[in-house]
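hey
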């Protein structure tokens, strides 16, 4: 029996922060299907429409439609979004939940199971962390209420206390690093019914200093502010890495 899994979302699913030697993103979705293919006897096919910087509307209206149009149809769609919406001043829980309900309805109509996977909580070391944490918790609570009604599976990384350790995060503190993506892959795979050992954290992270904080602001905060002022998305020229079925080597 062939397994076909499609992913839709933003940088969390594209794999930003977990780059291969050639600079292309790997990420937890790639890690998950690689692990799955290694332990199953049947072929595993993989599609990934996620693009960094995407807000929820194009994820639901464009990426999800493309995933549902795949031939053959997916056995499962893994869905994430809303993180970039939370970073914008126009964020509204009601607005993102309307879009999430549309996503659930589309998959129901197509007869394709939809699993919602939430991102890890990055707010510990971010500017405006209190506001972001409040928005994220409100969004997660609304998603939990939704799946209690619809019966969709929800796999939440938002409340994973383990990922509050800085060793799981990339230099920009917004995206998970390789260790964090490995952790999410093992958590999601376990929740899908394939128990998988989580990674070990390794050596402690280096302490923060005034110089490291200045370097962080120059490399990551200022460019982000510049993109927001110019209304320019980090993913404006990025294409999905696997918009058609890709056979994963076992």
């Amino acid at each position: 029996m062939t397994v076909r899994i499609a992913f839709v979302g933003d940088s969390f699913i594209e794999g930003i922060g977990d780059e291969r030697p050639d600079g292309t993103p790997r990420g937890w979705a790639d890690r998950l299907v690689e692990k799955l293919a290694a332990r199953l006897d049947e072929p595993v096919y993989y599609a990934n429409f996620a693009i960094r910087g995407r807000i929820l509307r194009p994820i639901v209206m464009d990426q999800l439609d493309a995933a549902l149009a795949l031939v053959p149809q997916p056995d499962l769609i893994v869905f994430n979004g809303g993180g970039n919406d939370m970073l914008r001043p126009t964020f509204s829980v009601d607005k993102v939940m309307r879009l999430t309900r549309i996503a659930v309805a589309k998959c129901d109509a197509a007869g394709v199971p939809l699993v919602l996977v939430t991102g890890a909580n990055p707010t510990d070391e971010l500017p405006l962390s209190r506001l972001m944490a409040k928005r994220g918790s409100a969004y997660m609570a609304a998603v939990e209420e939704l799946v209690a009604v619809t019966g969709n599976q929800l796999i939440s990384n938002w409340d994973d206390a383990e990922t509050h350790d800085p060793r799981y995060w990339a230099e920009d503190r917004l995206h998970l690093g390789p260790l964090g993506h490995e952790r999410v892959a093992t958590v999601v795979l376990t929740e899908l019914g394939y128990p998988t050992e989580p990674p070990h954290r390794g050596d402690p992270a280096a302490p923060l200093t005034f110089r490291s904080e200045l370097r962080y602001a120059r490399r990551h905060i200022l460019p982000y502010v510049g993109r927001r002022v110019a209304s320019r998305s980090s993913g404006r020229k990025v294409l999905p890495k696997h918009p058609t079925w890709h056979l994963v080597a076992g």
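Residues 112 and 193 are 18 Å apart (CA to CA). The mean pLDDT is 91.
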